[in-house]
Design goal:
single chain; 144 residues; two-stranded antiparallel sheet; 6 strands; alpha+beta; 4-stranded mixed beta sheet; 14% strand
């Protein structure tokens, strides 16, 4: 039988299936900047204070919206609007009717495959609470 992500749309998935799509890269938890005039998006290496920079998972997932009021909830009907999602994000890929990358944990069975593939934020970000300089000083090009 085909894997659930091949036979179901994002909106048809159970909560457990939806959550399992997250590859654990942590890049969605990095701050982004948008140019007000051009609309261009800039990625930074500044991580949300709740991001565990080793596991690249939220350290308080259940309470994230209470602790970080501007944390964004990903919903199936909104995924296409989120241009800031990494190009390798399973939610974005499936919304665009593309396949999961070969290193995705659902394909490998290994949650660390995302880190070995070099697409996660592990070792490449700093916590927003540790950054003393302006956010513009943290713009990077690696999350694309």
């Amino acid at each position: 039988m085909d894997a659930f992500w091949r036979r179901k749309t994002l909106s048809e998935m159970t909560r457990e299936e939806w959550e399992s799509l997250c590859d654990g890269c942590g890049r969605c938890c990095l701050h982004k900047l948008e140019d007000e005039d051009s609309g261009e998006l800039y990625f930074t290496n500044l991580a949300c204070r709740l991001l565990d920079r080793d596991t690249c998972r939220c350290s308080d997932y259940a309470q994230r919206f209470q602790r970080v009021p501007d944390c964004i909830s990903l919903r199936a009907e909104d995924v296409r609007k989120f241009a800031w999602l990494p190009s390798t994000c399973a939610y974005r890929l499936l919304a665009e009717e593309r396949e999961l990358p070969e290193w995705h944990p659902l394909l490998t069975g290994d949650p660390n495959s995302v880190h070995r593939a070099g697409v996660s934020a592990r070792g490449r970000c700093v916590s927003e609470t540790d950054a003393a300089d302006d956010i513009e000083e943290h713009i990077v090009d690696w999350p694309r």
